[in-house]
Amino acid sequence: MMTQPGLVLFVTLAVASTPSRGNNECVARNFGHGSVVCECNATYCDTPGSIQLPPPGQYLSFLSSQTGKRMERSQGHVQNKSTGADLRLSIVSSQKYQRIKGFGGAMTDSAAMNILTLSPGAQDMLLRQYFSVEGIEYSVVRVPMASCDFSTRQYTYADTPGDYQLDNFTLAPEDTHMKIPLLQRAQALASQPLSLLASAWSAPAWLKTNGALIGKGTLKGQPGGKEHKTWAKYYVRFLDEYRKYNLTFWAMTTGNEPTAGELTNYSFQALGFTPETQRDWVSMDLGPALTQSQHQRTQVLLLDDQRLLLPHWARVVLSDIHAARYIHGIAVHWYMDHMAPAELSLSTTHHLYPEYYLFATEACAGWKPYDRGVKLGSWDRAEDYAHDIIEDLNHYVTGWTDWNLALDLGGGPNWVKNFVDSPVIVDRTRDVFYKQPTFYSMAHFSKFLREGSQRVGVSYSLGSDLETTAFIRPDGSRVLTVLNRSDKEVQFEVWDSTVGYIPSVSPTHSILTLTWAVPQ
């Protein structure tokens, strides 16, 4: 039990940490799903704003909670002596791990369509929330190559049978009229170049064994054959066409969820690979095609599927020197994470292949059959996001990418009616959009962990339900994010040997980010 030291801590908190409220508070709306959404329109939206750290000796905190706080900013003073809190979280800066690449979401056809249903002012406001320095500063955007389930139709860029030279390769109106203009606008708002990531769902039907974009099907022939060569050439042509719009890609994956087209009769676009056929396609076709193109700097991420496939999938591909020389990273999705402990999948893979980074490329809420679609204001989903991000980061993942940037109130559009949730939900009839609690889950990481930030250790003075991850940013400042999924408020202090003790409290069902500068 907390005795007199607890009283001292309470008084210290009241004096040392002062909430700052501006003109950008959340316009809260409650739809009965456990917490609130923040409503935004063409002229108003809450925003964390540009963050300037106070000098060493002070700290900033940002709190989001089930009770409705959304990135509430406070500022306080670092203490010279311990506050007496039972729980101490010590920053172990000598324990250094992976560096961050970034955080973001996907510009699917559906996301672009939803954004463009808003008025120009509301469109701009939505994009600012994600990409500007006043917003949450997304740095990664995943771009589907042609259609996926979050499209309104099935198509590829080369639907002419027998076109092995891809003479008729053409971007779709969804690219040229929607996704590309929005990506250009997002880039104009961002303070740094966006890292674009491409993933393909299916090859053209005439290249596949089942003659369809959906269902169980693989490429015809064998790696090294004309179908496999054409599919690799398709990747290069996609990069060529986007480059004409001044959009270059940091990375491409070897294909979205290859097990979907290999093992199941999938109801939407899929292309099957085994780890062996993916290995051989990369070594014989994709790798050489990229090397001989103008896009040698575009990196290749294998897998792009569930982490339960690790480390086996990585071992098959990366044990082959011919394939491994073309691979840079390993992409994972979150949907089956409950079936694959992070230590056994992610950490084992990192320790086996430390030169290849791990990167999370897709996640969404509302995908489970018993918990389907949009839930406006669901705090449970916010906690699911934060938990998975912290777990991934603490097991060597270098970034985390959400799925659709925006969906409508029904969780679409989606041609196969595979409706899910999104951090931003658009209500075009009112020309507003709602920022879900999951938006703020993303904010607690994307806003603070710039590219190059390095994870460091955190030690606990005693057992706790708090989930934490800590980083040193490129400028030397510190970031600690704390998730409390319990029904109990937890008082604690942070010990950083370079500055001292930071008194803090983690409210029940909350996400808290603390950040502070250190003496140079």
Describe what this molecule looks like in 3D:
The chain is of the alpha/beta class. It has two domains: 4-36 and 57-99 and 453-516, Immunoglobulin-like, CATH 2.60.40; 102-446, Alpha-Beta Barrel (TIM Barrel), CATH 3.20.20.80. The chain has twelve helices and 25 strands. It has a ten-stranded mixed β-sheet, covered by helices on one side. Strand 12, helix 10 (342-352) and strand 13 form a beta-alpha-beta unit. The radius of gyration is 23 Å and the shape is globular. Mean pLDDT is 95; it is low at 1-23. It comes from Synaphobranchus kaupii (Kaup's arrowtooth eel). One of its GO terms (cellular component) is lysosomal membrane. Its EC number is 3.2.1.45. Residues 100-449 form the Glycosyl hydrolase family 30 TIM-barrel domain.
Task: Put the structure in a nutshell.
The chain is an alpha/beta fold.
Give Rg in angstroms. 23 Å
Shape: globular
Q: What's the CATH H-level superfamily name of the largest domain?
A: Glycosidases
**Structural domain tally:** 2
Helix tally equals 12
Write the CATH architecture name of the largest domain.
Answer: Alpha-Beta Barrel
Fraction of residues in H or I helices: 25-40%
Overall SS class: alpha/beta
CATH topology of the largest domain: TIM Barrel
- Amino- and carboxy-terminal Cα gap: 39 Å
CATH class of the largest domain: Alpha Beta
Q: Estimate the strand proportion.
A: 25-35%
Low-confidence stretches: 1-23
The order of strands across the largest sheet is 1-5-4-25-22-21-20-6-23-24
- Give the mean pLDDT: 95
The tally of strands reads 25
Main sheet attributes: strand count, strand direction, barrel closure: 10 strands, mixed
